Amino acid sequence: MPQLTRRRFLVISAALPGLAALPARASTLYRWRGLALGAEAEIYLDHPDAAEISSRAAAEIARLEAIFSLFRADSALSQLNAAGRLDAPPFELLECLALSGRVHAATGGLFDPTVQPLWALYASRYSAGTTPAPDDLARTLAHVGWDGVSMDETAIRLRPGMALTLNGVAQGFIADRITALLRAEGLTDVLVNTGEFRALGGMPDGSPWPVHLTAGGEIGLRDGALASSAALGTTFDQSGTVGHILNPKTGLSAAARWRLVSIGANSAAEADALSTAACLMQDRTSIEAALKTFPTARLAALT
């Protein structure tokens, strides 16, 4: 599978949620800024050793990128895609794939990390100034399907021609991991933003963390996660009409029924995967039915 760069093939056409301006009383918060899987990342905390703690969190983000990145040829995921098999896989990769399987089942197959060949097809065609033809889609769909993935602690195996993307879940997974690391450091009031949000406690003054939704409104986050997806959040075409969320059953890009879907849960990985799949669903009822499989998941915003 060729390594494709977002700069070359994608057009960012819509912003996703960010942290609203913090009150003046939060001026003592330490803010770390960096990248996680190509997205801007932030950690907010109030601690005398905030800089040192944040550096350990940054090292953990880098370690996890070496597992999940599609843009590093040496990552565990890239090696799996290249060879169709990965022996002695990292535990984190197995855990993320296990969650992906649960979300796949809960969403009737709409969340499916095996869409990577479709993504590569769209990217290559649009970069060449054309669009995927029906025959292209039919051939590529033969290499899509969760039943082509098998795994245990010894190896992960893919059917020939298959490849995985975890871009719809890994950012949330990393947010959960960093939050767990900070909890183990003894911190109680932290916000982690890796493209998806995970809060440990609230702001140091006791108020919730204010997360601004670009489609309008604000959500207060405390001891939980929030993830958002938009059908046109990232697009393949210059006009911004062909989004990056692809239907694993039809091969077509998600219809832009909503500007933004935001899911809350205890786990940012769950919320991330569920919000991705929700962009492919027909209505609010379908989304809420899928969320019932996950006890803490809720539809936070649909605009």
What is the CATH H-level superfamily? ApbE-like domains
What average pLDDT do the residues reach? 92
**How are the strands of the biggest sheet laid out side by side?**
3-4-8-9-12-14-15
Identify the CATH class.
Answer: Alpha Beta
Please count the helical segments.
9
Poorly predicted runs are 1-15
Radius of gyration: 19 Å
Strand content: 15-25%
The general outline is globular
Cα(first) to Cα(last) distance is: 35 Å
Within the CATH hierarchy, at the fold level, what is the topology? T-fold
**Number of separate strands:** 15
- CATH architecture, by name, is Roll
Give me the secondary-structure category.
alpha+beta
Share of residues in helices? 25-40%
**Which series of helices and strands comes N to C?**
HEEEEHHEHHHEEHEEEEEEEHHE
Major beta sheet summary: 7 strands, antiparallel
Number of domains: 1
Give a description of the structure.
This protein is an alpha+beta fold and 303 residues long. Helix content is 33%, strand content 20%. The chain has helices at residues 6-9, 50-68, 76-83, 91-106, 116-127, 134-141, 170-184, 268-278, 284-291, and strands at residues 11-12, 18-19, 30-36, 39-45, 85-87, 149-151, 155-158, 190-193, 197-200, 209-212, 218-221, 224-229, 234-235, 261-265, 298-302. Strands 3-4-8-9-12-14-15 form a seven-stranded antiparallel β-sheet, covered by helices on one side. Helix 7 (170-184) runs antiparallel to helix 8 (268-278). The longest helix is centred in the N-terminal third of the chain and has 19 residues, at 50-68. It is globular, with a radius of gyration of 19 Å. Mean pLDDT is 92; it is low at 1-15.
